[in-house]
């Protein structure tokens, strides 16, 4: 606007006269610009706030879509073939009734025969009761689902089922360990057996096993409450299993997995090591016995327990291997079926068929009394 070297004094005068007008025009332009900014600033602020609110709403909607509020889970069961449903219904209903009846007969036989009021059969009594409860946590729900063709379970029902399954699995694990300890003391230290394995100690061992199992189950269940789930709420099983629940979760499951592995190592592996150590010592003591009859009796008392141990831990390892190394849902469900249904079913047969004392007690229980015979004659 200003020239450094004006050509004439007239030109310099004109520039001086025009300078206030230019300055005033600049002020008007700046004032107008400031006015426009003042007018549009609230609108821009409103638009910015609206955009932020919209983004937050979209984020919340996306979050609610990704992490749904769990109402119930879908259970696939063992098969979706409608032709197999009546067969499965009859099969599992029969297996459950046989399980309950067989274990109930063991309980009645131990209770009614005074010769079986020993620590060994006291633990067998509790094992049979545990098998009835263990089977009752899964099989009746599965039978009802097959009958109604509505295989679902609520969120609370799923967590409750997981809790009870863990309680009775842990209790059976400890009972098998305690029974191995009982046989170890009876064979390796028979003179002090009644002192070491007294009735007070037996009750204390049962209460301790139950307490640890309850604490373990509650710990896993409470940790499962922190998990959030996506839209896929389908269990490839006939019941809620903790490992499958963790796999369905969308949130971080690192702590849950660490807890599962830590408890498995501390409780299951430690118990199995204790059982193996007990039987290694037992077999070495049996081989040193001079009498063949004493050897046979010792082996017969341990045979039933060893069969149950092999069945329980073998199926448990099968469940772990199928969940970790197999992608097939059917193989995992079959492995879970083995330790939840087949193991409680086989335990009474293994003890009744291989144990002479239990067979004699069952015969007395089933055989009618002399008073009943005389009444029939009259």
TrEMBL record:
Family to which this protein belongs: Belongs to the G-protein coupled receptor 1 family.
Keyword line: Cell membrane, G-protein coupled receptor, Membrane, Olfaction, Receptor, Sensory transduction, Transducer, Transmembrane, Transmembrane helix
Start and end residues of each G-protein coupled receptors family 1 profile domain: 102-351
Xref: Pfam families: 7tm_4
Protein name, entry field: Olfactory receptor
Membrane association type: Multi-pass membrane protein
Segments traversing the membrane: 87-110, 122-139, 159-181, 193-215, 258-286, 298-321, 333-353
One GO CC annotation: plasma membrane
GO MF annotation: an example: G protein-coupled receptor activity
Compartment(s) where it occurs, according to its Swiss-Prot or TrEMBL record: Cell membrane
Alphabetized InterPro entries for the sequence: GPCR_Rhodpsn, GPCR_Rhodpsn_7TM, Olfact_rcpt
């Amino acid at each position: 606007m200003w020239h450094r070297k004006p050509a004439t004094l007239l030109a310099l005068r004109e520039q001086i006269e025009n300078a206030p007008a230019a300055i005033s025009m600049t002020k008007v332009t700046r004032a107008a610009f400031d006015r426009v900014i003042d007018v549009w600033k609230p609108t821009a602020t409103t638009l910015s706030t609206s955009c932020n609110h919209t983004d937050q709403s979209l984020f919340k909607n996306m979050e609610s879509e990704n992490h749904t509020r769990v109402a119930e889970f879908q259970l696939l069961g063992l098969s979706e073939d409608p032709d197999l449903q009546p067969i499965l219904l009859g099969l599992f209903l029969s297996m459950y009734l046989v399980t309950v009846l067989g274990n109930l007969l063991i309980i009645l036989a131990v209770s009614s025969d005074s010769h079986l009021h020993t620590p060994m059969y006291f633990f067998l009594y509790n094992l049979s009761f545990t098998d009835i409860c263990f089977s009752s946590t899964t099989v009746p729900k599965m039978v009802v689902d097959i009958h109604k063709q509505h295989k679902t379970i609520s969120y609370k029902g799923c967590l409750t089922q997981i809790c009870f399954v863990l309680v009775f699995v842990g209790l059976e694990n400890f009972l098998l360990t305690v029974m191995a300890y009982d046989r170890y003391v009876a064979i390796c230290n028979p003179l002090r057996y009644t002192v070491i394995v007294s009735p007070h100690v037996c009750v204390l061992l049962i209460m301790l096993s139950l307490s640890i199992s309850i604490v373990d189950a509650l710990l896993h269940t409470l940790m499962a409450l922190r998990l959030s789930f996506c839209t896929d709420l389908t269990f490839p099983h006939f019941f809620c299993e903790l490992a499958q629940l963790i796999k369905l979760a969308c949130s971080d499951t690192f702590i849950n997995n660490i807890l599962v592995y830590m408890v498995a190592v501390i409780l299951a592996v430690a118990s199995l090591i204790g059982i193996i150590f007990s039987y290694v010592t037992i077999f070495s003591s049996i081989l040193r016995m001079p009498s063949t009859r004493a050897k046979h009796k010792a082996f017969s008392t341990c045979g039933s327990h060893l069969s149950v141990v092999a069945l329980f831990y073998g199926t448990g390892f099968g469940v772990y291997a199928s969940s970790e190394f197999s992608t097939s849902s059917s193989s995992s469900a079959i492995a879970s079926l083995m330790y939840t249904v087949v193991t409680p079913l086989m335990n009474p047969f293994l003890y009744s068929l291989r144990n002479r004392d239990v067979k004699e007690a069952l015969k007395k229980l089933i055989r009618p009394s002399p008073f009943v015979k005389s009444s029939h004659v009259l």
